[in-house]
Design brief:
The protein has about 70 residues and is mainly α. The protein has a domain of about 35 residues.
Length: about 70
Amino acid sequence: MATDILQEVYEQYIKPLSPEQRLKLVEMIAHDLAEAQPRYDWVSVRGIAPDLLNGEDAQEWVSRGRGGILRQR
């Protein structure tokens, strides 16, 4: 049912627009959607998994992981 409404809106209102107007509409929709995405507060995950690295330094863990990936290539 929603698809039928969208098709009707497209045929009646969007399709008659010029390519420039339709492109501007896409830009407006994309901007609106980008702002609607919730921003994640990374500070809120601080301490959520204590001892995850068993005392290992995070940078050492990342470097070790990357080294393993690079050796596999």
